[in-house]
Fold Putative glutamate--cysteine ligase 2.
Amino acid sequence: MRTVGVEEELLLVDPDSGEPRALSGAVLARVEADGADTDQDVFEKELFGQMLEFATHPQTDMAALGAEIVRCRQEAARHAGEIGCAVAALATSPLPVSPTITMNRRYRWLADQYGIATRDQLVCGMHVHVAVHSDEEGVAVLDRVRPWLPALLAISGNSPFWQGDDSCYDSYRSRVWDRWPSAGPTELFGSAERYHRLVADMVATGVILDEKMAYFDARLSERYPTVEIRVADVCLRAGTARLVAMLARALVETAAREWRAGGAPPDHGVSLLRLAAWQAARTGPRQELLHPLTMRRLPAGAVLRDLLGHVADALADAGDLDAAREGLDTLLAQGNGARTQRELLERTGSLRKVVSACVRLTQE
């Protein structure tokens, strides 16, 4: 059974005004002072002081992974509450914000190199690490999961608002993230040697700092023996995060089986994959998506159910098929985080109240 780990980036906000607060350093100091062994290697600072990241431990059981996501969110809320702020699983701030860059050498380089593109990156994502047995298997997986990743983006979409306005996107975070020169979908690699050579050539240009900046939608982790799927928004509800992780593991397992059986990956070009990602970011599961195999529009529900069918064997073998079906049915019925945020605004008329409600939903 492949292990799965999740990294989530959370927004630190004022519990009364809903405005982001640059207090990650203070929150991490509270974590250290608390002395809980389970939290010492869980929470980390991020590019901006208004963000806090956590990472779960590798899990094989999806119920255990879901429980750990909830626990980490609740612990983040507890530590933040001790210094007078709150955490929200929001991929962008609904309210206007002036980001505060965490000033270490790496982040200073980013600010100097990319200017306003760096200052705009106060966005929160979710990364899913799925174990692979070798770099060769990992690259074979990367080649085969490419067209399915926009479906995960549609499910996770949780960033409809940008600087106080409705962006008209379900995932505006992904549009901001793609301003990095190394972000987005990739061409077919074909082998681990070609993957590593491309990353080395990218670093050698001097445009990016190091291999950590290969911000592909999915990549080989430079720290762990995993494929890291990086396409998703941080999900408003922990249950949606669990669904994304479940589908990500099943996609990796399905791709590895296809590779071992000699199946060729779909050969869609990067231009088509960018269009599929744009469509997923624009409307999420509300309207239409580009089907991963044909790259033609179909109702989003049909595409997501085809995703479930594509990975059904892997889900069944892991004991996750019923849970995945239930999770997808729930997602299609209640919508993603973007829909919830828009419904909250329609009901309350206040983006501040949207943030307050999302603080509560984050910990459920």
In short: The mean pLDDT is 96.
